[in-house]
Write a structure and sequence with these properties.
Layout lengths: L15 E7 L18 H14 L5 E8 L3 E8 L1 H6 L2 H9 L6 H7 L9 H14 L3 H20 L11 E4 L3 H12 L1 H4 L13 H9 L27 H15 L12 H7 L3 H14 L7 H10 L19
Antiparallel strand pairs: 1-3, 1-4, 2-3
Helix pairs in contact: 1-6, 3-4, 7-12
Length: 326
């Protein structure tokens, strides 16, 4: 039975989450449709464009994504501190990037006089918007609903485009985050939809490679900031070069028609994560099969379950993959 979203989200333990949405009605509604011969790749472009647009509105950063033929993977980082720092006006301006708001909020941002009997309603709306702008469920709603409407218009039909619930999975430590990012970025390689990372269309990896060739990082994605965290902006605590090398070498290994190995230089990342190379390859190849709940060490899982008042540590057997090097 599906569990309520509030029993899966614990910002106190982690701000990192892996989310997955699948389409319904038929097996393929994006990409090539073997039944009709139509190609729906333009819908994957819709998803990517809407996703990157949301990063400027929400206090939620995108670390990795892959838009596949019938599903979407995301690695998200919730920055609740950012939404709390926004002024009341900034909160409403962010919300109005996506939604109309109310007549009172429209008056407020336009600088019109707010009557005394409207102040309570205005404050309520601001508090509500501030909460929603750091809420994964609202992020996914703002991503999926516009795509569903456009697809239904194109198909001249009504009803659901996406499955009713999206999957959300807590990533409890940096090893889980990096492993999940690599798993998401290598989805097209693993599905044989692309031969190399730079050919993986509609993925964060392609954006990162394209920007890296110019010595930059994509503005709409959470950046890699290296290993030094002091006085650094928010980001992923690894170097971009190390990550791209790790993903490239991992991708070569999981492809059946290519030979490859984790080099000694790249293996330094896995040593830091305390994961042996063979375990890493299995995690990236079978992440979706191995982990059906929170991902991390047993210690992190225990803390996560305690804060959510869970009586049992479900999925604790999966922790072995992140304890292997200890």
């Amino acid at each position: 039975m599906p569990r309520p979203r509030r029993t899966q989200i614990s910002i106190e333990d982690t701000s990192w989450y892996h989310c997955c949405s699948r389409v319904c009605r038929r097996a393929l509604l994006m990409g090539d449709d073997n039944l009709t011969g139509k190609n729906y790749d333009h819908r994957r472009a819709w998803v990517e464009s809407q996703l990157l647009t949301l990063t400027s509105a929400f206090a939620i950063d995108v670390a990795a994504y892959a838009v596949m033929s019938n599903h979407l993977h995301l690695v998200l980082n919730v920055d609740i501190y950012q939404s709390n720092r926004w002024t009341d006006r900034e909160v409403i301006e962010h919300w109005h990037q996506l939604f109309k708001g109310t007549e009172i909020t429209q008056k407020f941002v336009q600088g019109e006089i707010i009557e005394s009997d409207e102040i309570t309603a205005l404050k309520h709306s601001i508090a509500q918007y501030r909460s929603r702008l750091s809420d994964i469920s609202w992020f996914m709603r703002a991503l999926n609903e516009p795509i569903a409407r456009k697809a239904n218009i194109e198909d001249n039909c009504t009803g659901h485009f996406w499955e009713g619930r999206f999957k959300s999975q807590a990533l409890l430590d940096e090893a889980a985050v990096l492993a999940c990012m690599a798993y998401v970025d290598l989805n097209p390689i693993r599905a044989k939809m692309a031969d190399t990372p730079e050919q993986s269309d509609y993925t964060s990896l392609k954006l990162r490679v394209k920007a890296a060739l110019k010595g930059k990082q994509p503005k709409r994605l959470l950046p890699f900031i290296g290993n030094e965290c002091l006085n650094q902006p928010k980001g992923i605590n690894f170097s971009l070069k190390e990550y791209l090398e790790l993903v490239d070498e991992t991708g070569r290994i999981i492809r059946n028609d290519k030979r490859g190995a984790i080099s000694s230089n790249t293996a330094k990342i896995l040593t830091r994560l305390n994961i042996p190379s063979d375990i890493w390859i299995r995690i990236i190849s079978e992440f979706g099969k191995l982990f059906h709940g929170p991902v991390g060490t047993l210690q992190e899982l225990t803390s996560y379950c305690d804060h959510l008042e869970k009586r049992r540590r479900h999925f604790s057997s999966c922790c072995q993959y992140f304890q292997a090097g200890e």
